[in-house]
Amino acid sequence: LVAAFALLACTVSQAKLTVGFAQTGSESVWRAANSESIKSEAEKQGIDLRFVDAQSNVDNQMKALRSFIADQVDAIVLAPLVVSGWEAVLQDAKAAGIPVIIMDRKIVADPSLYATFIGSDFFKEGQMAAEWILAHADQKRKIVELQGEPGSSAANERQRAFASTMATHTSDGFRIVARKVANFRRDQGRQAMAELLTTHGSDIEIVFAHNDDMALGAIEAIEAVGRSPGRDIMVVSIDAIKTAVEAVASGKLNCTVECNPLFGPKVIEAVVRLTSGGTVMKETFNKDIVIDASNAAQLLPSRQY
Ligand code: GYE
């Protein structure tokens, strides 16, 4: 009997899963909320999570994956900084029998190299932002775009969707006059917008930012030149972090398209299924909504991130 208990205790302790999580970095408020959501759910489920903050550096992320494979973790969660370059390391993970969950951003690779993708539909988000502008722009037509991390699926898809939706309305005069990369960061958004205001001055009527942090930076830059964000210049972005929803409620931001980062429970559920012989859907998309003056105040109290 004692031996049986010892055996049981042994299997129970062996059952604790070890999961490697290669996060992009900590570039935005969205990212902090996403990291927290996965960490807390892992803890709840008694999972040993090895968290690596790649500090927006692809080499760091690649190194993290290699060390997870060398340590024979039970599963890998990857939020890929960029879309390309993952084939070789994913082949190694596959050869080692380690399931990989791609979350948040997508990759371009043979789909058999990863188990599942879980995240938002960035193309749809870009489209929703463009459609909101088309419906609410009044006389405003000239747009500047603040772009996220080059090569990331989030920036790629939001740009592609926005441009293609706007392209169908060039006859109405809608035009993207300039684009600037600000890497999803608030300080860079402020800086980029200040430069755009210098070079394009009174031309700018609408700002489309690939995330809220950059939009909040842009709002500061607009105020710094004595113009009124939300009125003189329309500002639209994506993520719907609490500070941005507050800015919508106070009229400085016109619209933010939600991109929900709180899907740690879905990611961890996939980990548990995949490591216990279960199956998961190849792709799972989160549902996102549009937030503007019509619903911001009402949504604010329940905002979790
Ligand atoms: O919009 C931005 C973050 O990949 C959806 O990355 C994510 C984006 C998000 O830094 O704030």
From TrEMBL:
Subcellular location per the Swiss-Prot or TrEMBL entry: Cell envelope
Claim: Cytoplasm is one of the keywords in the record: no
Residues annotated as signal peptide: 1-15
Residue span, Periplasmic binding protein domain: 20-261
Keyword Nucleotide-binding: no
InterPro entries reported for this sequence: Peripla_BP_I (IPR028082), SBP_2_dom (IPR025997)
Keywords tagged on the record: Signal
Pfam families: Peripla_BP_4
GO MF entry, a single one: carbohydrate binding
Protein family membership: Belongs to the bacterial solute-binding protein 2 family.
Name recorded for this polypeptide: Periplasmic binding protein/LacI transcriptional regulator
Organism of origin: Opitutus terrae (strain DSM 11246 / JCM 15787 / PB90-1)
